[in-house]
Amino acid sequence: MEASLNVGYLDDVTLGGTAETVASDVAEIIRAGKEIGLSLNVSKCELIAHKDFQVDNALLQSFHRVELEDATLLGAPLQFSWCST
Fold this sequence. Notes:
globular
């Protein structure tokens, strides 16, 4: 994997980096998985990005889009806001 963020736990993988690098790593996961009889379930894949972020890669476009404020990783929020009272 070439992505600057590369975290795996059991069958979950989180990648972060440029769209090109992430797309390349996803393609490698698909290729390596096929060699051992596994397939990527694209219906469970998420693309977490700012709402204005444009993606040109068809595979990444097929992922479910999640806004930054709604993003979680293994059930934990990735972003939260502090509020003072």
